[in-house]
Write a structure and sequence with these properties.
The complex is a heterodimer of chains A (about 180) and B (about 180). Chain A has about 180 residues and is an all-alpha fold. Helices cover about 70% and strands about 0% of the residues of chain A. The longest helix of chain B has 28 residues. The chains are: A mainly alpha (about 180), B mainly alpha (about 180).
């Protein structure tokens, strides 16, 4: 996957960007010549915000997924859940993409050479598209996923997919530092 | 952390006496066996972040309801998420213990870890005060009514404490 997408070259390109020097100076992760590093808290704070985003995703869109699977002991109306929780999901996705990009550019090849990262990004895209699809269908018709047996079956399938995909995103990204590629 | 230094100085001699016992834990065959297996840490870390996400994510939305968001959602209904929170909390404790046993001496002396557990304890106290306090009168303020000040306060305190737990948890490897 990494070779197919030329991710190593992508990492090297990120490495050569001037903004990388600025981010390094900000996060202190690598010493940049001539820059005195003072914000030792920059990197933990970025990671902390990233984890807050993960928590919001677990509490919002994953709960909607579990509800669609029928795994929750209670079943609030799906459209209500989507209307209240999904705005938080969008916010968390945006915040985590921003903090994620900062961490990516901070140490590019560590991420781009990782075997799990391309998959977690793929999962992220599919999971986001699925969540947008839920939001749109439920806005058009609050009963959309309860209308027929076929729809209810699809709700279970797509709910399961959502939960598994988000778990894949979180685990895949957590494993970046462990799944080093052969390069 | 200037405000934590006095507490730390107070704790230091007490915890230092446990150091030998703590080293015995990390040196035990049981801990050494799983610590040396390459696959353990990645799996346990993955499960820990998932568990933490579910714990804080679900608590966060219940807190928002207590503060006054999502008012047309019954609070008794929102509260039904709590058993799942406890399940995830159990997973977080188990996976966290697996980390802890690997290097108990480092964790016990780690300021960020100490603060994290102070905040966790405060979150527990906050939960107990809420549960045995204003929660008893929940039938009077369920459904679309404004939540009482005590419930709002419990929600705000809980959200802040958990956000703090995440911060100091993340800080642990940085101050190690």
């Amino acid at each position: 996957m990494n070779r197919l997408l030329h991710l190593h070259e992508f990492g090297l390109w990120l490495n050569s960007l001037p903004i990388k020097q600025q981010i390094n100076a900000f996060t202190c992760s690598t010493r940049v010549r001539g820059v005195v590093c003072t914000n030792v808290y920059a990197l933990p704070i970025i990671q902390w915000i990233h984890i807050l985003g993960v928590a919001v995703i677990c509490g919002s869109v994953m709960m909607i997924g579990l509800r669609m699977m029928g795994l929750l002991r209670f079943s609030p109306p799906l459209a209500d859940m989507a209307r209240r929780l999904l705005p938080w999901t969008w916010l968390a996705i945006v915040v985590n993409v921003i903090t994620g990009v900062i961490m990516l550019i901070d140490r590019p090849t560590r991420t781009t050479d990782s075997l799990t990262w391309p998959y977690s990004m793929l999962f992220l895209i599919v999971a986001t598209v699925l969540s947008i699809y839920f939001a749109i269908t439920l806005r058009i018709d609050p009963q959309y996923w309860d209308k027929s047996i076929t729809r209810r079956t699809w709700a279970r399938v797509l709910g399961t997919a959502t939960v598994l995909l988000w778990i894949g995103v979180i685990v895949g990204d957590r494993l970046i530092v462990y799944a080093k590629g052969p390069i | 952390m200037w405000w934590f230094d006095p507490i730390h100085q107070f704790l230091e001699p007490i915890v230092s006496n446990f150091d030998d016992a703590l080293d015995a834990i990390s040196d035990s065959d049981f801990v050494q066996n799983y610590a040396n297996a390459e696959i353990t840490i990645p799996i346990v870390e993955s499960l820990h972040i998932l568990a933490v996400g579910l714990v804080v994510g679900t608590i966060f939305f219940v807190d928002l309801r207590l503060i006054g968001f999502f008012r047309n959602m019954s609070i008794r209904r929102a509260e039904k998420i709590v058993p799942y929170t406890w399940l995830a909390f159990l997973l977080a404790v188990i996976t966290g213990t697996i980390f802890f046993l690997q290097q108990p001496r480092m964790y016990v002396h780690n300021e960020a870890f100490q603060i994290k557990f102070v905040l966790l304890a405060l979150a527990g106290i906050n939960l107990a005060v809420f549960h045995f306090g204003v929660w008893r009168t929940v039938d009077g303020w369920d459904d679309a009514r404004s939540t009482p000040a005590a419930a709002k306060a419990a929600g705000i305190i809980s959200a802040l404490l958990w956000i703090g737990v995440l911060f100091y948890g993340r800080l642990v490897p940085f101050v190690a």
